[in-house]
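Consider the tokenized backbone below.
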């Protein structure tokens, strides 16, 4: 077992050797240690190791994140080192309390899932498409940030009203290990997959002590029937559209995702980073189906629910409803100080999170809506809901029927309402509900026998095989001729942004969070906000609609756009210089994107006045200017 564990740890080394970056493997070992050691703190008070592993990263990051939003608090790697040292001390001083054999089993499983997705993604390394530019930029910003207060890196000088706890948390072990942004992002994706598998294993312990790791692995790879939509559309290999179609199963091109798809897509969006906590919360709540939660279950559930609204408020709403209904079934048994205190703490965290994230700029709608379509509902929910009903029928537990009724009722409710906006109502709620009901698919193996069990094995096996075709789908798309296998997620930049690639490489060697100016662009314009996207440096304005979703008004967006236009278009170099100094701009980008959107006479002023705008990096037709401070 130890040999197998060590061999799995060598897999990242193989990829780094292929990339000619062997020394980065030592960064990986430090990063992994940064995930493990703080877990001993929670485990020392009686929390199971897998639960401690899922909770510790977010738990110890959370107070730092909250304080750094308001104070000039140091948030460098040394802070995380302190948690690691405390955990290491407890691991040694209280070593008789820990079952290190069981811990090794758990870590072997984590590393197995981690390596599986690291390997899959190494064969399509390009961190391209979707909302990755924003995700990479957000992680990169927190990697660079040494002191609070936190600001919105795509709207410099304003509060970040977004689910940023996940980015903040995953940046901490990366800071400890001195990882660069590219490596940190690639490892974080595989790390979230491993954490999701650990959380799922907690759920399956309720059904099987022997096969809980196997069931968790099945859950990760079972996916949904959405892949049939990819087959239906045809041309499944050689194009990203087939891979995309596996989630675009509802009417009006609405969609819902599932863990396997998200991990293969290298998606580090907030709802993905919330998967482990969502599943852990559901697992702990589910324990109350059989008995009133004990003190340690109550503590870990409370802690997870306190964290959840800061990761994904949509998950929080679903889980709070389920927890309330189940606990009320115990009536007077839960009317004690511990349950009341836990409820108040969770509600306060939820209210604080909603008030922190809320903004008048977001136009919210509430009401009824037409169905998302039977086709999508069948593909996304038929097998999971069938599994849930089978388990409910076999267990004959009325509280399990409460869970079943709640989840199925929530599916039908969400299918017919608008909450905030219709796109996110379908996307966020259907994804959350899909994850929860899909957990029951492997459980049917514990409740069926004979022919029915063999039939269920065949169906589950077919689902796994069908969903594994997502891997060749995305690998065969090959949007850029990058080397594979590789962990160099930024290798595609020299093809996508050939002129800007040198500037990005230069800025990734600089420290701190200096403000840069570049063309902001519309959402999903991959030629806009591109320097910030792959460096984590803050911008005066990023993708417009995404900045609105982060709490800014369109009035603010237009004012900032007009100001940026003025800086690039004006021929008055001295006026522009004074404005840039006043706004604390450090770097100005002039590249193909700027030449496409602004007049040449305005752009030439930066070259014509080197005493004001010092050229610090030139690559092909792109130039990076630094504001000369006098």
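A designed sequence for it:
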């Amino acid at each position: 077992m130890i040999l197998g564990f060590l061999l799995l740890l060598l897999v990242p080394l193989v990829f780094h050797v292929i990339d000619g970056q062997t020394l980065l493997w030592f960064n990986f070992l430090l990063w992994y240690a940064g995930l493990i050691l703080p877990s001993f703190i929670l485990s020392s008070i009686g929390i199971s190791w897998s639960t401690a592993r899922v909770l510790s990263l977010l738990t110890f990051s959370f107070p730092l994140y909250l304080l750094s939003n308001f104070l000039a608090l140091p948030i460098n790697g040394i802070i995380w080192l302190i948690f690691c040292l405390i955990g290491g001390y407890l691991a040694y001083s209280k070593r008789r309390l820990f079952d290190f054999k069981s811990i090794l089993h758990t870590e072997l499983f984590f590393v197995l899932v981690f390596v599986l997705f690291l390997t899959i993604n190494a064969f399509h390394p390009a961190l391209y498409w979707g909302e990755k530019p924003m995700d990479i930029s957000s992680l990169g910003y927190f990697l660079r940030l040494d002191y609070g207060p936190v600001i919105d890196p795509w709207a410099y000088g304003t509060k970040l009203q977004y689910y940023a706890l996940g980015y903040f948390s995953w940046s901490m072990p990366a800071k400890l290990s001195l990882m660069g942004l590219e490596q940190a992002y690639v490892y974080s994706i595989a790390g979230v997959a491993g954490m999701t598998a650990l959380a799922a294993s907690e759920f399956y312990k309720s059904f099987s002590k022997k096969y809980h790791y196997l069931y968790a692995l099945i859950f990760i790879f079972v996916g949904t029937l959405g892949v049939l939509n990819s087959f239906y559309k045809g041309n499944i290999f050689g194009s990203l559209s087939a891979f995309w179609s596996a989630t675009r199963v509802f009417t009006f091109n609405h969609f819902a995702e599932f863990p396997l798809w998200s991990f293969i897509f290298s998606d580090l969006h907030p709802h993905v980073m919330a998967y482990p906590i969502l599943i852990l919360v559901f697992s702990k709540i589910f324990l109350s189906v059989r008995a009133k939660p004990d003190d340690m279950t109550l503590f870990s559930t409370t802690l997870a629910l306190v964290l959840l609204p800061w990761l994904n408020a949509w998950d929080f709403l679903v889980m709070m409803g389920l927890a309330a209904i189940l606990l009320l079934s115990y009536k007077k048994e839960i009317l004690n100080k511990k349950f009341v205190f836990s409820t108040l703490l969770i509600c306060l965290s939820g209210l604080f999170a909603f008030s922190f994230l809320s903004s008048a700029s977001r136009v919210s709608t509430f009401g009824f809506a037409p169905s998302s379509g039977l086709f999508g509902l069948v593909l996304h929910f038929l097998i999971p809901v069938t599994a849930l009903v089978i388990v409910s029928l076999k267990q004959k537990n009325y509280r399990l029927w409460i869970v079943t009724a709640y989840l199925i009722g929530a599916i039908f409710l969400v299918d017919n309402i608008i909450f905030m906006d219709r796109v996110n109502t379908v996307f966020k709620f259907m994804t959350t509900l899909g994850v929860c009901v899909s957990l029951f698919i492997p459980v049917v193996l514990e409740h069926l026998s004979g022919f029915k069990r063999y039939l269920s094995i065949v169906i589950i096996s077919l689902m796994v095989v069908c969903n594994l075709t997502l891997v060749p789908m995305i690998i065969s798309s090959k949007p850029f001729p990058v080397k594979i296998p590789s962990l160099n997620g930024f290798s595609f930049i020299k093809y996508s942004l050939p002129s800007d690639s040198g500037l990005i490489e230069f800025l990734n060697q600089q420290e701190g969070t200096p403000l840069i100016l570049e063309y902001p662009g519309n959402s999903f314009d991959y030629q806009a906000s591109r320097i910030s996207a792959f460096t984590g440096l803050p911008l005066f304005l990023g993708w417009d609609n995404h900045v609105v979703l982060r709490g800014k008004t369109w009035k603010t967006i237009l004012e900032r756009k007009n100001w940026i236009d003025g800086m690039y278009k004006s021929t008055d170099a001295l006026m522009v210089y004074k404005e840039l100094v006043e706004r604390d701009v450090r770097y100005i980008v002039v590249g193909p994107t700027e030449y496409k959107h602004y007049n040449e006479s305005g752009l030439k002023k930066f070259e014509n006045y080197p005493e004001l705008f010092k050229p610090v990096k030139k690559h092909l037709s792109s130039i990076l200017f630094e504001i000369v401070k006098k």
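The mean pLDDT is 94.
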